[in-house]
Amino acid sequence: MRRDPAKPAKLWLRRHWPWLSLLVLACVGVITFDAWIGTCGFYGCPSPTEIRAFHPSEGGNVYDRNQKLVGHLENIRRLNVSIGIVPKHVRDAFIATEDRRFYEHNGLDWHGMLRAVARNFSAGGIRQGFSTITMQVAHNSFLADRYHGRSLRRKLVELRISRLLEHELTKDQILEHYLNVIYLGNGVNGIEAASLDLFGRNVNQLSLSEGALLAALPKAPSAYTPRRFPERATQRRNLVLSLMADQGYVTAAQAQAATRAPLRIAENEWRPSITSEASALDAVRALVDSLLPDVLKEGDVKVYTTLDFTLQRAADKTMLRHIGQVSAAR
Questions:
Q1: Under 8 Å CB-to-CB from 251, ≥6 apart: which residues?
Q2: So what CATH class is 79-259?
Q3: Would you say 154 and 135 are in contact if contact means Cβ atoms under 8 Å apart?
Q4: Global pTM?
Q5: Contact criterion met (CB below 8 Å) for 62 and 289
Q6: Minimal CA–CA distance to 89: which of 237, 265, 267?
Q7: Residue ranges covered by each domain of the chain
């Protein structure tokens, strides 16, 4: 009787089939996960060119035939500023509060992550995040329309894009993006718009106390808005000042003096509106939206028209005056 030479191999395969199946599944899982991460959740990662060209939108500007600013495509309450005009104490306030090791890590703060994991584990749920400034830029600039709320999936994609940002941009460029894109409550985005809205002054004119108040807002803009909750905002501002002192950005005496500064908030809110906005802008917005529906998602745009702002404003005033006369006659 001849012995089947393939029988031992068949017996070995049959005996080890469950483990081989698990190994194959594990390999497939690793390959799939690697592809998912490599493509930023299968959506596609921003290219180096897109990262370097990113510019937080101010709503898109519309110009007349003489290149005079007529209005905006969208009313976005933001004014971008370069990092060079932001006072050092304002930058330090945000770093001390939001990401104390910003200039040391490569997009992920391992110390902060381990601390957050330990706290969340002890609390039995998500109580603290570990987003760095770079991760916040990644989310607000490239993921805002994909993921909402906290999730492991969002964090993993944020980490992937954060590493891309750290590779393509300098730390100051990342910080500049952050300070321009961050939401600071009351419908305002970015520190320049928030400074005008809360204090009626540009960000380069802010005191230490006022800069600390701005840095107090990102954690919970609605909860710490000084117009509605002045006492809560003051307490949070003072916490920021103490963090700055603890980390050596200011002396204890400077921090203490700033905590005694009264909270002075501008009476009127700031809005990026053009006086006597031309009625023809509605037609411009409709045309741009029909031809380029996603144009504002690509960043700031400039639309040049054949309008004459001076003549258009005169026509609008004449039309409104005649409408008023007709209404009064009725």
A1: 245
A2: mainly alpha
A3: no
A4: 0.77
A5: no
A6: 237
A7: 79-259, 274-329
